[in-house]
Every structure is written in C-alpha cells, then in structure tokens.
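Worked problem 6 (solution included).
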Amino acid sequence: MTAATHSPLFPQVPESADAVLDGLDPEQREVALALHGPVCVLAGAGTGKTRAITHRIAYGVRAGILAPGSVLAVTFTNRAAGEMRGRLRQLGAGGVQARTFHSAALRQLQYFWPKAVGGELPRLLERKVQLVAEAAARCRVRLDRNELRDVTSEIEWAKVTQTVPADYPAAVAKSVRDAPRDPAEIGQIYAMYEQLKRDRDVIDFEDVLLLTVGILQDRHDIADQIRRQYQHFVVDEYQDVSPLQQRLLDLWLGDRDSLCVVGDASQTIYSFTGATPDHLLNFRTRHPNATVVKLVRDYRSTPQVVHLANGLLSQARGRAAEHRLELISQRDPGPEPVYTEYADEPAEAEGTARRIRDLIAAGVPAGEIAVLYRVNAQSEVYEQALADAGVPYQLRGAERFFERQEVREAGVALRGAARAGGNDALLDDAEDLPAQVRAVLSTKGWTSEPPAGSGAVRDRWESLAALVRLAEDFARAKPGATLADLVTELDERAAAQHAPTVQGVTLASLHAAKGLEWDAVFLVGLTEGMMPITYAKTDEQVEEERRLLYVGVTRARFHLGLSWALSRSPGGRASRRPTRFLKGLRPGSGSLGAAGAGGGGGIERGSGSGRRKRRGPVQCRVCGATLTEAGEMKLMRCEGCPSDMDEGLYERLREWRSEQARELGQPAYCVFTDKTLMAIAERVPGSDGELAAISGVGARKLDRFGADVLAICAGEVPGGSDDEV
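Solution. The predicted structure is:
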C-alpha cells in the first residue's frame, strides 16, 4: 500500500463493515444501520446526508446484507451521482449503481426496447428547442428566442407532471402557474411537437421516463426482471421528485418497501419545474412503519449562521414549514452575520466589493467567496464593482451581462438608431435620450411594466430594463448626451470586461447556488420586490421565496453578509424596504429573534459603521455636473470633459501593468483598471498619500504596487533605478 493511499484524495478503505461506521454521529449511524423496510431521512442543510446514505449502503454491502448489484441509488445531477459513486468506491462498495433518474431509465429502455417494442430505440433528441420552434411555426405562432425557451420549459413541466396537451390549459389554471403565452396556444404547440416527434421517430428526455413507465406498466415480465435485479433503492434530494419520477420509482419497487429516501422540504425551490415536496411529506402516510431519522447537526455553518437560518424558517407558513428542521451547529462560534443598508445599488456593489477585497487580504481564498442574487440581471453592477476593486470573479449559471443575447441585440439596435439619427421614424416622438432608448428597446421586448411570471422572458426584460436605467443615469450625468454617446459608453463598458478567471469570487443566482457552499457568502439586493420577487403572488409562491433565501443563508460556512439598497441610483428617492423575511431577525426590525447566537451584530449604514451617511453627489472637477457612473467618479470628471492626462505616463503605466499581470498570472484589471490608470496619469501623484486618495488604490494595492507607480510617475524605472524611462 502506497503512501498516497492515506492522502485525502486516496483515503484508506475501511478494513471491515464496522470500520465503515467509524466517525458517524449517532443519527448518521442510525441511518447506516437502518437497512430493512422503508427509511425516511430528513436531513437539514450541512448535516452530512450524503455521508450518511453512502455509509449506509457501504455498511450493508460490507456486512453482506446488501449485494452491490442489487442496490440502485438515484439523485438529480450527474455531479451528485458521480460524487456518490466515488465515495462508495472509497468505502469498498464499488459495485453499486448510482445514477440520475434519467440515466437509470435510459439504460433500462435501451436494454428492453427490442424485447418490448422491437427494433432500435428511437433517436434521443439532445435539444428540443429546434423542434418546438418548428411546431410553433406550423401552428402559425411566432416565438422569439426567449419565448421559445419558455415554451420549451412549459412542455417539459407538462410532461413531468404527466399532463397531456389537451389538458395543459386546465392544468395551468389549477396550478396558478403563469404561462409565458396563452395556455391554449401553448397546448397547440405542445400537441404539434409531439406529432413531429412521432413522425421523425425521435424521443426527448422526458419520453425516456414516460416510455420506461409505459413498458413497466404493460410488460409485467420486464418489470419483474428489473425488480429481481434491483431490490434496494436509495433516493437523494427526495423533495425534488416530480410526479413522473415518483411513478417510475413506484414501478421499480413494485409491492416491496426496501426504500430509503433523503430530503429536506425546506430546500424545495424548484416547484416551477414540476418538483414537489409532497412525496417526502407524505412518506410516513404511505409507509406507516417507516423508520424516520432526522439529521440536524450542522457541520457546515457557524452557530451564528445557523441561528439566522433557523430564524428564517421559524416565520415560515404552510405544510413544508410544519416539517422544518431546527439545525444545531457543530462548529466553533464565528462572526455575526453583517446586515448593511446602502443608499443606492452602486454603493451596495462597491461596499460588497470592498468587503470581499478585505476578506481576500485577510487570507480567505477568492474561490471561497460568493455573491448571490435573485435574478441574473443583477450581476452587471457586481461585475463592474469587483473589476474596479481588482478582484477576480467568475459567473456561474449565467452569461456575462454584455454577452447576453438580448444585450447584444439591443446594442445592435441602438447602434443602428444612432447611425440613422433623425431619419429613424421610431425616434420621432422621443424627446430625450432615455425616451429614445425606450423606443428602440421596445422593439426588442422592453415594456414599461415587467412581464408576469419568471423564466427567460422575465430575464430578458430585466436585462433590457437595466439598459434603460443606465440610459436614464447617463442622461442625468450628461444632459446633452446623444444616442451615439450612449453607444460609445456601452462599447467601452463591454470592452472593459475580461474573461472570468478560474479562481475567483463566484457570482451566481440563488437557484444556481443550490448544493454548493463557501467560506463567505454575500446575499445582496434583499429588498421587497426582489426578495420575494414581485411575481410571487400566492402564499405558496412567497414561501418558496423564503426557502430560497434560506438556501442562500445555509451556503455560508463562516462569513455571511446581507445587504439592501434604499434606492436604485445615487441621489434617488429612498423608497425601498428591506425584505420582510428578515423582520424580527435583523437588528432594529422587531422583537423576534436576536441578531445572532450571541445576540450581537448590528446594521451597518452605507460606508460601514456608525450613523448612516447619505452618499452626496460627486461633481465633475471640470464642469461641475453631478457624476453617477463609477468610472467617472474615479476620474472625478465627465467622460466628455477635457482631460489633462499625461498620455506618455498612461502608456508607461499600461506597459508596467501588463508585466505585473503576467507575473501574477491574473487579468490586467486585477492590478489596476484602465480608469484607475487614467486617474493616476491625470493627477500624477508624488506621495503615498496622494496615490492613496485615488479611487481604486486601496491599502493593499498601495503596499504592493505603490513604490512602482510613484517611480513611474516620477519618470524613474520601477525597482529603484535612477535611469530615465
């Protein structure tokens, strides 16, 4: 046995079945020993549920109670299934099948199709969007790219809820679901899509489950063969099963009850895809003799984070809330969650970036920090703030703002309108720049009121609305600006964005963060209308929004920041309110709960502490106009005002920055952004104090790069040489 066998990557395989149980807490051990009959594991966030169920399977195999080939463990993502297989191998139970529902069903379908139907299994349609588009065209319905994606999602929802095309409109009405188009119209497209699949002998991923269900229902001999093969079932993330997946699971089981399910109703956040916690909540009704084990020891988060998570659920309502788990942290105490109220969104983004920069300087790896928001359209201001702060970042589950299809299309439309000038009839009634932008973007899907519901249409609207707001801010900062000026500004902003680095702060939506964890998490934009989102109308929808925030809180191991802005832009009316979900939990919001496990904490105001300082207007040092853009504030002048920048110095600074970036293996903006270099070249600082006064040059960068920058400004070679550059 090599030394590598004892490394974290290659742990030693337990010597015996009993050794598999070593290191489990009492409840996890109870799960591992419950090998007979139905078992329901209610596992809170961070409680080691994967550890418990993999050790359960491994113990059963190693003790000779379970044959490896007779166990089928199913979960919802390939990543989770792969992780489970890896853990089972490390525990000496390598022969167990761990798959997603679709993967397990597809294997069975491929094997039994010739026997059940004859011939070859129809070709699997990897992407159904093109066929949905053709179905819509045949129904004489025009769908843009985003509507197409939403209608495709509706068809998927209908199929996993076992709703046929004719019943779709009634099912939508019954579920209080916001359809992206007229339900009758979607029902027609759905029916045509199914017809096209039959005509072309193809199936989609939902058909894999439907056809497997159909074969198992019709062919008892095949069902019996599968049941002889798989005699023990484990289902992870059971709160996320759809009615169709539950039907398949029932057919796999037959009249047996050797089933172990694991889930947490408080983490149900995908109901819009057809997931429902009802099967988890009804498990003990269906299986009265079930063994039920609750895992509540939280090994992920500090007592302070867990206290807030418990407080969130204590206010929840509805059936899922009745089954909530009270988590108990097993970690040493950490810092209290930090609640910060900002005057406006740019201040919130800049303040978050400063906190992140401080954490990185204190030794927290950038890859162990996340900024989580409700919708992807919120990412742009945080991308900009982190870039300005020199912090590397990566986006998860979303395109970068200026790379989004709708933003690119909007840019093309605005550029064309700017080129046409007064010859564009679309702009005839537009009196000012914001009105011109609204007129142009109205052809791309922007409306004065947001669309109902979620999905791609809402995401597209949010992106276009962000461009409208940017135009409004730009016009306030530059009263005489033209559409061509705005296009130039957009081009400069897009060019300033660099590809995200592999090791960087994660920017992600709350949905995309499910199943992940970080040392430090910043939950941003926590205002009414965003959390809960405006289109959460029913009590059930609002409760799912609460659970979404709960999932966000429980992603944090140690540091947790929660913030909101009272207005959208600097100088705006402070009309926003922090989310109702924090009422009674954040300091000063009521009597329910304390700020943390120790009752400390507090709300920081804007710049960080003490009395809230309302951010006053920043004025251009050339013309005196109010500045609203971060880049202009850095330069202390309007983009269009004359610059006294030393062009030669600016180029020398750029060359030096490129060398530094190569040595550090980071993007150039992580050293200094272009705007910071421009500000340095305009002011030509001669001392540490003058350099530190420039926005974008903090204490860390002053210590690291200050001597070099001051040397370049003085006409010297960085590093101490007296030779002229």
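Discussion: The two ends are 60 Å apart (CA to CA).
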